[in-house]
Amino acid sequence: MTRTLPQPATEAIDLVTVLQALGDPVRLELVRTLAKEDEPRPCSIDKYDVEISAPTLSHHWRILREAGLTTTFVNGRTRWVELRREDVHSRFPGLLDAVLA
Amino acid sequence: MTRTLPQPATEAIDLVTVLQALGDPVRLELVRTLAKEDEPRPCSIDKYDVEISAPTLSHHWRILREAGLTTTFVNGRTRWVELRREDVHSRFPGLLDAVLA
DNA sequence: GGTACTATTTGATGATTGTCAAACCATCTA
DNA sequence: TAGATGGTTTGACAATCATCAAATAGTACC
């Protein structure tokens, strides 16, 4: 019913890849938005205050997911994104907290 | 006698720029090496275990300095680089610690 | 089945990036 | 002053990246 898109295992999360993913203003803003709630958020373009097109947003979600920062759930026609807070924290303690502070 | 190359003020250090600077394997390694000692290190190519040319190393030092992560001192013909631990920590508490852990 | 809808993929484009060789600059020393 | 030295800047190149329009894929609803 609810499928999860492929993502790296916690142990496989790479620091350089994470920093690269966070080193983009749009993605940092997305991560900040996700961090406000501790549950999945829809990933539709109209739910975010960013000045990019839908394909570009989709591209950023992929970068974040493949870096190990987010999980994407597929449910019917809509998708949900969630920050992998605990996973990232267990791999790089304090990193997300510092970035989100 | 000892000159300091231009660098951003502590308050002007930008998070995205810092993350971009750290999001490169060579630069992350350089920062890690700097972090081992709490004093300036020479920036000559032969002092670092990196497989890049001198101009490329020079380029990376510039990126790190302009991001606000390092200070470069000029003394005669040689230069010294130092991690701006306290400055970065005061701007983004915990960030460097998390990255260097 | 057909249509509307959500979101991604494809393909293309302009900008940025990491890299090096060659030229250059400033400093030290003979 | 001339040569050697430490390091940077310039210029070029290939690779990567962020971006969008158009096409595509999968799902829901009538």
From TrEMBL, chains A, B:
CDD domains: HTH_ARSR (cd00090). Signal peptide: none annotated. Keywords: DNA-binding, Transcription, Transcription regulation. The keyword Glycosyltransferase does not apply. Residues 7-101 form the HTH arsR-type domain. The keyword Magnesium does not apply. This is ArsR/SmtB family transcription factor.
